[in-house]
Amino acid sequence: MRIMQERLCKPDVMNRGCLLDNFPLTAEQANAFVTFQIEKVLLVDVPEEDLIVRATQRRLDPLTGRIYHLKYRPPPREISARLVQRDDDSEESVAKRLAEYKRHIQATLPFFEGKVVRLDGTKAPAEVVDLACVALDSLEWTSEDLPYFGNAAFAGPFSMEKATRAGFYSPEHLPDEGDKAVCFQRGANWQRRGKVAEISERQSDGKSGLRKGFDGVLVSVTDGSGSFSCWSAFLAPMNDREYSSLCTTHGLLSSNFCALYPCSKGVGDVDFVSKEAARQSLQKWLAELEDSEGEALEVNEETMEMVLKLFASQEESSLYLYTTNQKLGRRISLVTGQDYSIYYRALNNTLNCDAARNLSNAMPLVQRMIFSLLYNEKDSSMRYHAGGRVWKGDTQRPVPLNMQKLREAQRLEKIIRFRQFQSTTDDKALAEKYRTREDGRGYLWIIDIPSHFWGARDIHDISWKNKESETLFPPYSAFRVQSLDENQCHLLAVDRRSELTDRAERHGWGGTRELQI
């Protein structure tokens, strides 16, 4: 209890609250707990016979640590023989635990009279969660400064300014009818997607995520199964193909990039491409360049000639050209993910948008860049990075869908990948300068690189900017999320073939076969 009391007095709990799972367990603990402000007690009711089935039919895979259930989550047939039952899931142990629970719960509940909400635990898991959300939504979580509550992107109540900063719609930045949007409100509509059908100003009744009496913009969204409404602060554009666009390994394998990537060793590696083939690819890509909306972008003859001249002037031309600030035309969008006015941004947005025509034209150029990052052209030996910490400053925060991918990758300990080339520096001050060069906010990426790492290259010796440190990662490089918040994300670089090999082994493939899917 002393440990619990000390923890519950920490600033994060005092500011945002917390959820205690299966605590307090005894009347003594409950009595010591009365000094804290307990808002609700959620009691999940399940008949005893169901609880016995749920517990006694659980099975553990000792190799993976995964829990299966003979009735509700049957294991694959091929691993059934190795599964074991935990000691505390035996019928005798479960019976003792239930008896102990019943004895204590009757003595504990009176301490929370008027605050207990009983939930029907026999319903489907999603329905039980919805019932819990309804119970919690009845609480007054908000304040006049933070009138919104229930957005999965935030830990607690939040303001419209904070939602706007994170990329959600607001009264100053409303969606248009027909726009595709995704809902981030906790509950039944979480991650529900559809088209905006109607927009109206309303005063809140306090039951739908906005403090009672406050004015907001209510948006109606339709999808294949019907329609739903929520405040604009819970809706984000359904677009994850912004600058520094993110995807999972599944996203890589289902991308146009993967389908168009010609490599005998698979998408985790690269084959050699000649300088002339890359030059022809560069010329064709620029001549037929399209923006994120599929509209043609004209690169005039003078600019085309200058780009090709720059390409021809250097031995490692594909990488050198990427480091320049070579302009291709006039900037027509302040959104970095829609900006094709500078060469390196146009190339990265070609990768981010994953449009087949642009990618097909640019692929030999991209392949040569990847080869130059991973191999020495003279003898085809692997290049290794010495390791260390690097930073990258983006002028814009990741869109809500990409932030959600980062959270999920951290929670599930999965690989996250950037679709584009990632240019980083070992000078944190320089990264901070890039981060704040537009609206003064931006987003900071911190990347730790293991020593003797294959998958990135220090290109300061060929960079257009003399003596500027620069480490460049190829498209779809693999990272693990160490930590993140609304201002920065800390990543660990891992082998770009990670999870590709795992998938192959699960399918019984060996050698390099896993990278040829």
From TrEMBL:
Protein's UniProt keywords contain S-adenosyl-L-methionine: no
Positions in coiled-coil regions: 275-302
PROSITE patterns: TR_MART
Pfam family name, one: ADK
Nucleotide-binding found in the keyword field: yes
Molecular function terms from GO: AMP kinase activity; ATP binding
Keywords assigned: Coiled coil, Kinase, Nucleotide-binding, Transferase
The family this protein is said to belong to: Belongs to the adenylate kinase family.
PANTHER family, per the entry: NUCLEOTIDE KINASE
Name this protein carries in UniProt: Adenylate kinase
Organism, as annotated: Effrenium voratum
